[in-house]
Input
Amino acid sequence: MLNVSGLHLWRGDRHVLRNVSFTVDAGQCLLLTGRNGAGKTTLLRAVAGLLDPEQGEVSWRGTAARKSRGEFHAELAYLGHDAPLKGDLTGRENLRYSIGIRRAVAANEIHAALERTGAQPFADRPVRTLSAGQRRRVALAGVLLTGAVLWLLDEPTTNLDSDGKRLVASLIEQQLAAGGIVVAAVHQDLDLGSGSVVNLELAAA
Amino acid sequence: MKAGPLQAARLVMVRDLRLAFRKPSQLLQPLMFFMIVATLFPLTLTPELSRLRDAAPGVLWVGALLSSLLALEFLFREDAQDGTLEQFALSGQSLTWMLFAKTCVHWLLTGLPLALSAPVAAVGLGVPAEAMWSVVAALALGGFALSLIGAISAGLTLGARRGGVLLSLLTLPLAVPILVFGADATQRAITGGEIAPPMYLLGAIAVLGVTLAPLAAAAAVRIGLE
Amino acid sequence: MNEFFAMSGYGQYVWPAFGIGFGIVVLIYVMAVSSLAAAKQEAKRRLEMNP
Amino acid sequence: MATWTWFHRFGSPPWVYGFAARWAPWFGGAAVLSMLIALYGGLILAPPDYQQKDAFRIVYIHAPVATMSMAVYSTMAVAAAVGLIWRMKVAHAAAAACAPIGAWFTVATLATGMLWGKPMWGAYWVWDPRLTSELVLLFLYFGYMGLRAGIEDPQKADKASAVLAIVGAVNIPIIKYSVNWWNSLHQPATRLIGEADMDWSMVWPLLLMLAAFFLYFGWVMLIRLRAELLRRERNASWVREVVA
Output
């Protein structure tokens, strides 16, 4: 369903992505590995459409993602290095707005998602008072709430304790079991018990 | 169920207003800045009201422009830094509508309060009481156009170092027509003339701005997020 | 000849105008050429650094 | 089909680099030659104006640079739009090449306008609508170059400055209109030359000088375009061949 072919991308003087191609289908997980600076984040951002590749194409369900950006993004959830949250709002408010702009969302849905990621106890505190790990749990609840088919996760386990790492693994497993797709950049192993996992190692530029 | 573009825009507005009211001190800064600028003119020019009256349109409009610029820097920058702007761009919704919503909030929080409190400054500049409604109307309409133009430059400077000065450098030449027509409307109001012609032109610029500026701002923001 | 340079009394405006105007014309050219030379130099330097 | 090949060629940096290298000298030669003839025609052959006497001769430098200051901005905006829409690197390079040239033409316009204004109006600076518009145009160029310099990533700088160039191009007619409006409120319109009653012997050097400046712009722009292409394509193999 997600097909990336012949991606080339330069950042200033560095040829970061050199001819990257892969295909991921429903129920599959692609783990991007490689050293720091190998272009994992760049690749994720290019797939999401935040970066404009010099050459190559990202296509979703057979059509170029660039041409039907709205439809593609409606089915996509992207979680970058830092949790995209406003410090002056509570976790719950953050989700109400960030999900609300995508779809109508009920308060109990938000509650359920926060429960699942273990963010419920601190969901009503301003985000700026939360630890990095707590923010990540709120942000993961946001990813669940999008209901997106395709998840793009950049180092989803950073700042999380071992408990949190297991949580990420189980969330990914559930997403795959439901026929979703996950593309994740990782530098330590994710223990995915089930589901079909493909590894893609990016060479350092 | 996917939310419509207007629903998304409404939520962005509610969010930005709520965020602004969590920091009330920051909210008042542009207004206070405007008042200080208006106070400096009598101190540096002359205390005579009859002479200040001639300078009043210039003082009001330059003050309005500068305080609008002051708040403009934060229009997209904070959202870009904490990653929420990126999520807007990836929401599958029209970024154009959402940025238009943010621009409207910028006007509601700077341009509109400034226009409403302008009579206080205008009295001190010798503007006659019967001109006040026109002064407020011109500043409100012109302020809206300024916010729209400013949104483009705020988007363009997202990816730049030292965005602050650059933001002014980009905005000021583009704002010339708004200043010309706005100051003319104010001038006519003070001298008891017909303010309709410059107000129509100001309105035309605002309409043009509503149709084109959010599009340009969305293009600029997408480039800035790269 | 003097009459020509006097420009019916406007020489002090006419000649500086032409001087500045064509001075800038020359300046634009010189800057373009030096910018091209600098770009070539830079490209050569890079070529030597990583052949 | 033929237009498509042309479009394709102009999208290819090495081809454009070679094209610019071949054609620049021709533009340069034609520009210098026509400038000299026009100067001779304007300074010596043309009779003095019956009102402005010999001061009117400033038109032969002022009018061409003023025309170019606007024409270069339009070229820049069109190139920027082409670069943005068709993602054409060469077009972005062309837009970047235009900006400093246009800014200097604008400076020349202001300087020659002031020198003309002194004998005609009695002051070096009068808030004449045309000079005021030129001043705003200079600020637009400054903004464009400032934005380019402020963004480190060259591709990002290309795209962002392209948006600004287009916004500026939409705004320029509005600025001109507003400045004319503003001026008509405060003073009657002033004219630098009596356009209506110019003799042919005065007109042809002006037209020739205009043509000369367009050629000159083509010349310097092609040189700058080559520099821009070398900088942008510094990792491409054709650059290695060119400089080796």
Notes: Chain D has a mean pLDDT of 88. Residues 38 and 209 of chain D are 5 Å apart (CA to CA).
